[in-house]
Amino acid sequence: MKADCLAKVIWPRRRKAFVGQPGWQLLLTLCCLLPFALIAPAQTTVKTTRALSPARSARVTTSATAPSLRNSGEPEPALAPPDAALVRELLNASRTQFPVGKRINIISAHLLGKPYLINPLIGSLDQPEVLVTRMDGFDCVTFIETVLALAYARNETEFVRRLRELRYRDGLVQYQNRLHYTTDWSQYHVRRGFLQDLTVGDNTLVREKTLFLLKQLPAKVAHFRFYPKYKLASVTGLLHEGDLIYFVSGRKGLDISHVGLIIRDGDRLLLRHATRHRRQVVEQELEDFCRRTPMSGFIINRPKE
After folding, report:
1. CA angle 84, 87, 89 (to 5 degrees)
2. Dihedrals φ, ψ of 54, to 5°?
3. Residue spans of alpha helices (H) in the chain
4. Residue 73 reports pLDDT greater than 60
5. Are the CB atoms for 278 and 218 separated by under 8 Å?
6. Cα 35-39-41 angle, rounded to 5 deg
7. What is the pLDDT of residues 182-200, one digit of tens each?
8. Within 13 A of 228's CA, how many CA atoms are on the CB side?
9. Residue ranges of the domains in the chain?
């Protein structure tokens, strides 16, 4: 709006006297610019938040109200277009398959070859937690979370909701609510009836271990059962397609070093997983992986239909 037009709007009765005063155009220009100066800091804040996203075209679903989504009735944030297209493709390819293990097989097979990502999640005690929904790469945990969310979802919105509920205690997107340690993740979902724990019986051992690897979290004591590594041959006959396997770490301060999915191909028992060593999602003989990988043993969970 021109300065003389603005004078007519603000001071219609005294514009003649006002316009005649020295410096009136400068004063009106400053009045016009003041609101934009106040808005500028908020725009800068948005840009800073986006800059937190990791490199390699990260797909991130962000919501300033994410912690209240579970109870507020607000819609889930939308997926990025490339991710939404892939989610629709995977849902269409698997939705009619039963039991859930078949859906897990179909979905995870489509993701073979996707790159391995180091630390794909965003958030810490000093950085706001962000619900990451990227489909262009995974670490071992986000791989099984994504496959499971897709295996139970009927549409894109439900996929995002299920992923949120798998990753966070009570579905609240906060760093403190993220299920950081795999034994916590497993036991939480067993309690809520989503998973069945198959790590039972005389072939299992009980371990108590202090977990302190995550320096931003207080140390905690974990209690869990596991099959010793040498018991693999006696357990393989119990495994179903789509079972989850967690490999127990011998490292101090850590419970689980790696996770993956069990896939059956005739008589072959395969491990399908996102591996840092091979830098992508792969499948290989489970026995071969266990023979080559240092570990104390493994835990088996089964998703319920």
Report:
1. 110
2. -70, 170
3. 3-10, 15-19, 24-50, 69-72, 81-94, 100-110, 140-152, 156-167, 182-191, 232-235, 286-292
4. no
5. no
6. 135
7. 999 999 999 999 999 999 9
8. 7
9. 1-32, 60-303
**Amino acid symbol at 121:** L
CATH number for the region 60-303 comes to 2.30.260.10
Model confidence band, residue 109 (pLDDT cutoffs 50, 70, 90): very high
Residue 131 above 80 pLDDT?
yes
Count of beta carbons in the 10 Å neighbourhood of residue 93: 15
Which tokens in the block code for residue 82? 């490339």
The H or E element spanning position 274 is strand 268-275
Query: How much is the pTM?
Result: 0.78
Measured in residues, the chain has a length of: 305
| Euclidean distance between CA atoms 190 and 304, whole angstroms | 10
The alpha carbon dihedral of 124, 125, 126, 127 has a sign of positive
8 A C-beta contact, residue 220 and residue 211: yes
